[in-house]
Amino acid sequence: MKRSILIISTVVLSFLNLNATTLKTKATKAIVKTEITENNITTEYEWSVKTLTGKSSGTSSSLEEAKEMIRLFSRNEVVLEKKIISYHVLKSDASDSRTYYWEVDSTNGKAKGYSSSERDARAMIALVTKGEVITYKIITSKK
């Protein structure tokens, strides 16, 4: 009998505690529509440097900033490898979390970048591609 009362009281108190600590908020997310044009595209640079003591990497908004970061991380070190890769990104996606990586090979060259939706990734591929598309790929990241 004592055990039954103890179990029932534990369940009731747990349920009451759960309701008392649950924060109820209204999720309101503004929908921002961005037209995909050449004016709304920016370039971000992903840099990495490998030295005898380790490897460092990051992203920068300009090529000069990426070179400066490599210089800072490799100061007084032997540089084994350094790499800077540029990506085409919508200006509205530059600060948001990226979920779609895209890459395209066309008859006139290669391009790659990040987008926040598959639709935007396809639009970016269409916008950046000059000539015939040879291959393209879109990779979705996990959240």
TrEMBL record:
What keywords tag this UniProt record? Signal
Cleavable signal peptide: 1-20
The protein here is known as: Uncharacterized protein
Highest classification ranks of the organism: Bacteria, Pseudomonadati, Bacteroidota, Flavobacteriia, Flavobacteriales
